[in-house]
Amino acid sequence: MKKNRRSFIQLAGAAGLSLAGGKYFNLHEDMTNKKTGMRDNLLHKAYDSGLSGTEETAVNLIGPYGPWAAGLLEKDLPSLSFRRNEFTNSESWKKEAKNRLAERLGFPDIGLAPPVRKTREYSYDGLHIEELEWQLPYGRPTSALLLKPAGASGKLPGIIAFHDHGGNKYFGTRKITRTSEKQHPLIRAHQEQYYEGRAWANELARKGYVVLVADAFPFASRRVMMQDVPPHQRQGLDDNNPENSGNIEAYNRWAAQHEHVMAKSLFSAGTTWPGVFLAEDLKALDILCSRDDVDSSRIGCGGLSGGGMRTVFAGGFDERIRCAVCVGFMTTWKDFILNKSFTHTWMTYVPILPKELDFPEILGLRVPLPTLVLNDSEDGLYTIGEMRKADSILREIFEKAGAASNYHCSFHPGPHKFDIAMQNEAFDWFDKWLK
User: Fold this and answer.
1) Residues 363 and 312 sit within 8 Å (Cβ to Cβ)
2) Which residues does 164 contact at the CB level (< 8 Å), separation at least 6?
3) Is 330 within 8 Å of 379 (Cβ atoms)?
4) Are 113 and 320 in contact (CB under 8 A)?
5) CA–CA distance, 185 with 58 (Å, rounded to integer)
6) Three-class SS of residue 156?
7) Whole-structure pTM value
8) Does 3.90.180.10 match the CATH number of domain 1-435?
9) Are 128 and 208 in contact (CB under 8 A)?
10) Cα separation of 184 and 238, whole Å?
């Protein structure tokens, strides 16, 4: 596990990539691993001993510029933070803050919910499974899976299950589902490493939910293919024999290096990667809520890492999501400034927004709706001190809104993952609030 996690963190720094759950990351970390470990140990000791200011941040990713950059956010609470004294009514605060969030996201108008085509349906391992497809105004069609208990009748609560990033754009829905006894060896290894061998979307559906899992932009069916880009950008790759493991790994290395290109293009178009995610995830939410077998008043969402990040934005923005579970993606903007930007994807950032909302406050926009955050205490993608600070921020928001019992945060032992113990806690949380 540790070796795979390190190699995942490795591709990110060189490529500007990566959100969790995968094995492709920062190429230079092998050379700097000892220094990185020393830095994290120093920071953790500083947080745990209550040090502040320059003592806490003396060692950081951008050297002498770190204290100055962090100071830009530390002079006062963010301007739209519910923790500020001038905000006393949570509903009026949410309206103002959500409008600003949409503005900062460059939230793209992608039209009405698209028509959905069912390409196949069948039963597997106690589940009724539908393979779905819809066409957004751009890109290739989105492939999705819908899972529910076989033989279920009436309206069931619905869940949008977000797959992780994992430094692996070749795969999407397959990362958290299983539709036959035959699995691609890379998917089997992925689920063993990050989900303790479980296809967690299947497990949740078996508990009495209609679960929708769709390929995110630009993963799997939505990925950028070699034929889509100029020849000089292809690095000798093509789209032939796509299921070959070696070709998949080569594609994922290419996609990591292409990520900064996509991000710059989106910024230049007046939008952001989180804005595109949110626009597309809300279309998936429209699709789920419109189904005859779904009770649209009982909708939840959740996911690990990249899926946790999408939970923050979708769960914070749309109150149709009555219950949210963010796994392995909760910290502060300060953590990204000083410590951990090199372990994360370009998909995370929203220019200017940190002056107005700290990262946990985006998820806090859903107050008083039930919200669970699951962290790993040895997660190398964040510092433990800033994960704890994020917890205290969310706790303060829910307490101020008079909804303290609707928020919970747990720290589980181990590295970045969504293992069975964490899944069971998440499933119990969904059951508590949606059944």
Assistant:
1) yes
2) 19, 20, 21, 22, 175, 176, 194, 303, 304, 305, 306, 307
3) no
4) no
5) 44
6) strand
7) 0.89
8) no
9) no
10) 20
CA 77 to chain centre: 25
Beta carbons of 10 and 29 less than 8 angstroms apart: yes
**Radius of gyration over alpha carbons of the chain, in Å?**
21
Q: Tell me: the pLDDT tens digits for 13-24?
A: 333 334 444 443
**Contact in structure between 188 and 172 (CB atoms under 8 Å):** no
φ, ψ for residue 130 (rounded to 5)? -120, 130
* Measured CA angle at 292 (ends 288, 294), to 5 deg: 50
Q: How many other C-beta atoms are found inside a 10 Å radius of the C-beta of residue 72?
A: 10
Per-residue pLDDT at 58: 62
Average pLDDT of the segment spanning 402-417: 98
The dihedral region occupied by 185, where left means phi > 0, alpha psi between -120 and 50, and beta the remainder, is alpha
- Would you call the peptide bond into 230 cis, given omega within 30 degrees of 0 as the criterion? no
User: Amino acid letter at 398?
Assistant: F
Pick the closest to residue 362 from 102, 16, 88 (CA basis). Answer: 102
- Nearest CA among 219, 256, 222, 221 for reference residue 237: 256
CA distances from 99 to 228, 350, 397 (A): 35, 14, 18
Runs of H (alpha helix) within 79-231: 90-105, 185-195, 200-206
* Closest by Cα among 172, 122, 169, 170 to 150: 122
Quick one: CA torsion of 431, 174, 172, 242, rounded to 10 degrees? Answer: 180
Query: Residue 366 in contact with residue 319, Cβ under 8 Å?
Result: yes
